[in-house]
Specification:
188 residues; mainly alpha; two-stranded antiparallel ribbon; 2 strands; globular
Length: 188
């Protein structure tokens, strides 16, 4: 693997001891962590059964898991949409920070692939098929951006993971013994 030397050093700011009590402050703090000890990272903001409180958002009164089982009640759907939008805004925050970090041949975002997704298409019915997801960044110019790829029904998510792993040098023929192949058209 080629060596990489950052062109700038991150500005480190010491945060107060302890975990922030505010969910939005805690999320931003976690997204701001930069150590450059690895070029691969995973960030899971919450698990599916979380009872996290989002009452800091206007109009939200229920916990996340409860509102995800909205039974098509307009008030709960609105709360769930508000929380989902908030999560997307946090991803935008991270992408904006990544875009601002110059790496000589582009930004950190230009040289990255970010996968943003949910574990359920619809928590109300526990629907796990046809997950909405998005790949962001440019993957060092390899990611074909600005397109929509619809995989055939039943395509395992592991196919995307295998495609990404192979694209970035992992010599593997299967991902978690679940993949059935790779996905064409993602990389040029």
């Amino acid at each position: 693997m080629p060596e990489w030397t950052p062109l700038s050093q991150p500005v480190l700011q010491r945060q107060p001891a302890g975990i922030p009590q505010s969910k939005d402050e805690h999320m931003r703090l976690m997204l701001d962590l930069q150590t450059d000890t690895t070029r691969v990272a995973t960030f899971m903001s919450a698990h599916g059964f979380n009872r996290q409180n989002f009452t800091f958002l206007d109009g939200v009164k229920n916990d996340h898991h409860g509102m995800s089982h909205h039974k098509n009640q307009a008030a709960l759907v609105k709360e769930y949409t508000t929380v989902s939008r908030w999560y997307a805004q946090q991803v935008n925050y991270m992408l904006t920070k990544m875009r601002a970090i110059e790496e000589g041949n582009g930004s950190l975002l230009d040289n990255s692939v970010v996968l943003y997704r949910s574990e359920m298409k619809d928590g109300n019915g526990h629907i796990k098929a046809d997950l909405p997801l998005v790949l962001l960044g440019r993957g060092q110019g390899r990611l074909q951006s600005g397109q929509h790829i619809a995989c055939p029904p039943g395509t395992p998510l592991a196919n995307l993971h295998l495609t990404l792993a192979q694209q970035f040098g992992a010599e593997m023929d299967s991902f978690n013994n679940v993949s059935t192949g790779t996905i064409n058209g993602i990389f040029g």
